[in-house]
Specification:
With 316 residues, the chain is an alpha/beta fold. The chain is built from 7 helices and 7 strands, in the order E-E-H-H-H-E-E-E-H-E-H-E-H-H.
């Protein structure tokens, strides 16, 4: 799923990217005093919203992820997270600073957009457990086909440990850009232990996918600290694993180990500060799972049980 503007998976022929797009400083989510514009720290000396400068209290965020892609690209010294060359040779970077900056930017967008007032507007955000197996006849996106096949298999077998297309920001910002923002796959690994999975087969880059699932982890932390009134199992979790799941060929030529190590260190440090467990990893989608030939239900789900580490088997 793209980081910026989002269209429903079932309505697009392929899953192409949009915009993640700046940075900030903040304290707790509910504390407006600790999230002031004066605390914004941007590497370039300015924050941007879809290419527009942020001057004082001007333009409100149109998405909770406004500024994220641009901020991370600047911190990683790459032109774009989505460019195929990005991540093939990544200079050493401070993962803790990168993850913390991402969280603080999203938290600042949440505060400036007044999103707390709308946290009960949609009952769909962070829903558990719901399966969305439907797919339009003309949708040939391999990611969508595989994702919906997993949902359909779970539905037919009565499995309740998987969900797909889990909304995370519907109704929280004026406009519709975040209304269809959703996590591809969520898996329950234990009573209070979940995985957020960004499924990739042929779109974007490993670096962009890592940024996507990291952003969802940040949104989860924010929602966890400013919960809606209704009971929400996902927000009561105490451990969250952020995962990119893709075929081995998707990762070829990328500096996976350095990216994974930095993102994981940053996620763990951020989790510690928020009294929860976070982790990050790249994992391999079993080669027997492909859009052209989906395995039978039980086999399909069994193949997803213990995905191999992409770092362990992919040479850089």
């Amino acid at each position: 799923m793209s980081i910026g503007s989002v269209t429903p998976s079932c309505c697009r022929p392929s899953r192409t990217s949009s915009t993640l797009s700046g940075a900030t400083d903040c304290g707790s989510i509910g504390c407006a005093a600790s999230l002031t514009m004066g605390q914004l720290r941007i590497q370039s000396g300015r924050a941007t919203l879809e290419g527009s400068e942020l001057n004082g209290a001007s333009a409100l965020p149109r998405s909770l992820l406004d500024g994220v892609e641009r901020r991370l690209a600047a911190m990683l010294n790459v032109a774009s997270l989505r460019h195929r060359s990005s991540g093939r040779s990544v200079p050493s970077f401070d993962g803790e600073a990168l993850v913390d900056s991402t969280y603080r930017l999203i938290a600042e967008n949440y505060r400036r957009a007044g999103s707390s007032a709308y946290k009960d507007r949609s009952r769909e955000n962070w829903r558990w457990q719901s399966l969305q197996p439907q797919i339009s006849a003309g949708n040939r996106s391999p990611e969508v086909i595989v994702e919906r096949a997993i949902a359909a298999a779970c539905s037919r077998l009565g499995r309740t440990d998987w969900a797909n297309q889990v909304p995370v920001a519907s109704g929280l910002v004026a406009g519709t850009r975040d209304n269809r923002r959703a996590i591809d796959l969520v898996r329950r690994r234990g009573e209070r232990h979940f995985e957020f999975i960004e499924l990739k087969i042929a779109s974007d880059t490993p670096l962009y996918a890592a940024a996507e699932v990291l952003a969802y982890g940040c949104l989860w932390l924010i929602a966890r600290e400013d919960k809606p009134a209704r009971k929400c199992t996902l927000l009561d979790a105490e451990r969250l694993d952020l995962r990119v799941l893709a075929p081995i060929g998707y990762y070829a030529g990328y500096a996976l180990r350095s990216i994974e190590d930095a993102f994981d260190a940053g996620a763990r440090a951020l989790g510690n500060r928020h009294k929860t467990e976070l982790s990050f990893a790249f994992e391999i989608l079993d080669p027997r799972i492909c859009a052209d030939e989906i395995p039978h239900d039980r086999i399909l789900l069994d193949l997803l049980d213990h995905p191999a580490s992409a770092v362990a088997v992919t040479p850089e």
